[in-house]
Amino acid sequence: MSIFDIPVMQGYIRMCRDGWEQNWHERNGGNLTYRLTEAEAKQLSPYFRTPGSWVNMGVKAENLAGEYFIATGSGKYFRNVDLAPQDNLCIVEINEAGDSYRIVWGLEKGGRPTSEFPSHFMNHSVRKAATGGENRVIYHAHPANVIAMTYVLPLTDKAFSRALWQSATECPVVFPGGVGVVKWMVPGGADIALATCKLMEKYDAAVWAHHGLFVSGPDFDTAFGLMHTIEKAAQIYMLVQSSGKPVLQTIFDDDLRAIARDFGVTLREEFLEK
Ligand code: 13P
Ligand code: ZN
Q1: CATH architecture of the domain formed by 1-115
Q2: Ligand 1 neighbourhood includes 115 CB (under 6 angstroms)
Q3: What is the pTM of this model?
Q4: Of 20, 24, 69, 237, which cross-links 78 as Cys (Cβ 3.0–4.6 Å)?
């Protein structure tokens, strides 16, 4: 028995490999965090080492005090995760104030959690509150077509949500709330964390202009599926845009309403035309 026989570890590592295979993680691009359940933390704890020292995060979330997260390491490559998870991932514990972490497992050759940990952490806090504790996954990737869209569309929630909904029939069902858009910002800091959080109170996905996509979900399948669905729609959008042919037809607003009605989802009406 090793820590890698525990299902949550296997699910996490599989998601890293799947993201790499989708070509969303050039070099060290992207990062993934998972908030462990109490039972999972207990199951993993026999493999924990004497913890490192507390590291202040510069952000604070009281509703995450005492929680444990699995995180990718800063500068580590998704491509390498399944070859040596213990060198590329870590498990961190959050202190009672909800403002510092310490490493209890992994990063055996040194390192620290992803540079986007403040963003992930604050978004976990917001999504935990918004979903009554259901949300556990925050995932950031660099999918090429979503990034390409940020050069040709106005950087508004409405423009992106509509373009994506109209690009594939399943989209309004998978993300009926739409997506948020963060204008270009320096990555890794508290500012982008706070801007993303504001959007994640309403949405479960946020586009980072000229950078990538941030998604959340209750489990690995749902979060990965959301990233995949949005990027696939973005690919269709960009294929249409670059085909050189005029758009002769699309999914119109009343079609979107019909999908919502039949699938029992509520679309963000403010994004639809009368
Ligand atoms: P990290 O290697 O620190 O996770 O950074 C990668 C990234 O995508 C930054 O936005
Ligand atoms: Zn990034």
Answers
A1: 3-Layer(aba) Sandwich (3.40)
A2: yes
A3: 0.97
A4: 20
